[in-house]
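It would be a great kindness if you could assist me with a short task in structural biology. Thank you for your consideration; the sequence and its tokens are set out here.
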Amino acid sequence: MTEVFRQGVVITGIHSRARRDRSYEVAFTAIPFSENYGFRPQPGDRPVMAGTLPARVTSTRTNDIYGHIDLDGRYKVNLLFDRDHWSPGEESLWVRQARPYAGDTYGLHLPLLAGTEVAIAFEQGDPDRPYIAGVLHDSTHPDPVTIRNYKRNVLRTPANNKIRLDDARGKEHIKVSTEYGGKSQLNLGHLVDSEKQPRGEGFELRTDSYGAIRAGKGIFITADAQSKAQGQQLAMEPAMSRLSAALVEMQSLAASAQQAQALAADVGRQQTLLQQKIEQLQKEVLLGTAPQGVALASGDDMLLSAQENLTLIAGQQLDMGAQKDFTLAAGKQLSLWSQNGAKWFASRGDIDIQAQGGHITTWSTQDTHISSGKKLVITAQDELTLICGGGYIKIKGGNVEIGGPGKLLIKNTGIKKAGSGSMQGVMKSFESGSFDEKFVIRNSLTKEPLANKEYSITMPDGRIVSGVTDLNGSTSLNTSDVIDDMTITLIKGK
């Protein structure tokens, strides 16, 4: 043993004890000293960080208005007990933030700005693994919800984008708002202004910029009530009832007009629209309805257009007025029919009725009266004939012929004869007009325009016009005296 101590030992532990009735004793453990091996004591326990430490988020930019984060969404923080001087944004390594929802490129992340107070916790108490456990308000960063608005639930960003849910009983409302576009907002429920004063109820979608409503399968707008949100989204029974009633009225009018040999409305087309497109939005249509009325007004122009049929139906009276001119134009025929009479009036100016390429026929089952406050002039280019009861007066080629199965009675004080004379009437001449029209060729299934397709159009007079559709599927402009009976054929393989 003496030899061992002579060579040297490494003390690995010391144990001391003492009592009043005994001497002070020291015992130790040791191992022989050797250059071939050394003593490696058991490592002590690492420090454990309990609780959280206050810190503030930092940034390399002064007054940074955005969150200073790295590619992994981590922050730099300055622990409040650290009094050393550091460059802004270099007070720590990157620190993760704990969030209520996270995953692979999804989650909830509301970036923190420099100066925000945070609570730093440590994973399993390891001081080398800090993370942001929570975010705190303070006197310089006040809470958006206080005793002043304690009934509200608020999510507000530094740029004042916000979602506000007010739980005041009987005054519940939701507000989604952004400053862009002059406060673009969606307001639901009990609507209030900035002073919390009522300004409406229901919902409001507003912006000072542009607005668009788009639905690829159709849009249904209605003022019919659906209490407590009970019922289907496309519950449109009241609207369909109104449209069906209007269709029945139009069917009755069309039948009467057809019986009177007037042009009848295309009721079949309207039935197809109602039953195969509008009902339950089977096609891409827009349906608007209200039980007590609909009003559309424009401070300038208004355009109503339909590539196929445009139908107006009124259960009682249809009124149309214009402060200045009122025009009606039809590419084919124009038919006006009334069950109980028709009246045309012009308080000032002329009434001009022309058949520029055909006949004019007037007929009545009762009397026909033609009156004039001044002159009445009847002019015919070739022949004028008056017929009644078999008697007639015919004027043709400058000659006047009077005939009849009975007697000719002339009551006058006398008959004066003179040499021949004539009077020429002024006849109007009309130039024939033509229609210009082009067509869009679409795929019958997808309704997409067919671009760069060769086609041929057979005109009513037998002419064939060939061409290639443009990028919008449109044909070239075609000219014809009529706009019907054209046949368009796509050339296969082209």
Notes: The longest helix spans residues 237-259. The CA atoms of residues 383 and 399 lie 10 Å apart.
